[in-house]
Input
Amino acid sequence: MTQAERRKIIIVGGGPAGLAAALHLTRRMPWLVDELLIIEAAAYPRQKVCGGGVTFHGEEQLRDLNIEINVPAFPVHKMIFRLGSHAFSATCADAMRIIQREEFDAALAKAVADRGLHCRTGERLIDLVVHEDGVTLVTSRGTYSADIVIGADGANSVVRRKLNLPTTAGIARLLRAMTPVDQAQSTAWQEHTAIFDFSCILQGVQGYVWDFPCYVGGQSFMNRGIFDSRIEPQPRTSKQHGALKQAFTAGLHERNVDIDSFQLEGHPVRWFNPRAEFARPRVLLTGDAAGVDPLFAEGISYAMEYGAVIADVVDEAFAHRDFSFRSYRERLLQHRMGRSLKRRTAVARHLYRHQWPQFWSTLWQLAAISPAVVKHAVGSSLDVLPAFR
Ligand SMILES: Cc1cc2nc3c(=O)[nH]c(=O)nc-3n(C[C@H](O)[C@H](O)[C@H](O)COP(=O)(O)OP(=O)(O)OC[C@H]3O[C@@H](n4cnc5c(N)ncnc54)[C@H](O)[C@@H]3O)c2cc1C
Output
């Protein structure tokens, strides 16, 4: 057997979480540049099923890392929250931009490479064994040993599985369809609006249907999807968990879109559970492998922000030669990111357990008569809009 290649840190997964973690770590510890390796199973530009909404919070993360991502994007200045015939809206210039993840992640990976960081693509982690003095990793191409491994390999994380951490609990389900639109016929396009339609809640879905205008290869499209957080295992209703495809079919039908004419793609999101385990000795989890937002399924920004906490705890680990990472969970919860995710998790738990039509329509009626209160609640408390932070 050939000798294992040695690195101080190996990051498994080159999505926003893994790439941002590499940037945070090497900003804090520049000596790590040649001691850190990212292993990515796919090759850029790699496909990623996503709504593509980069919120203003995501832009903040990029600015913090001094990264500019110039890819085709549709700017969103208004968000409409719908429930049947009720609706309320929040307006904010550049509240969000809708990108294609293939392009966004490839640009982020290029920015990482431009800073001299090493990423091996087309290489998949197969196995991982933690020893007292390091971690052995077996990939599709060879064997490595590392002081620290960062699991940034998404909602179906192999790192997570190899650590015997729970893999099925805390998983949200999402479906997406990309449908071409005629700009002239679409108010959402003309008014730069993203729509979050919660009507499917009444069918047992704990989430919403989204319509995000976007560009695909220069053509106008609508990124449409459905998100079911499944955060409440026993919703307060006689209904079981909603049949997702059925609810999405009904939502698309209302929009005059025939589901059978478009490719339906699905991918899970792991949601943030403040009580979960996020680390084991020598191994840290980040992004979807650790948990993101269960209220809206916002993950790009949070995935990047995890990197800030990782840089703190890794710096301390090298300084004290203590790789237990016992404090990681607490540090996440104390950080702005962890506090924000904790709030969204609490709100999601409280809201999505209710499926009584009266409860939801009362909420929407209240929202319609007090837009300022709603803007404050959605914008400030839940970090969706910048105005009140
Ligand atoms: C349908 C859908 C819509 C969404 N819409 C939005 C949205 O509009 N806005 C938003 O902010 N968030 C959205 N999200 C959430 C967002 O996509 C994720 O939270 C985000 O991608 C998390 O980034 P990550 O780097 O943790 O994981 P990923 O982006 O999944 O990256 C993980 C990487 O690890 C690699 N990998 C996996 N296994 C291995 C292995 N064994 N070895 C090596 N590499 C491996 C993968 O190839 C991948 O590149 C959506 C999610 C879904 C499913």
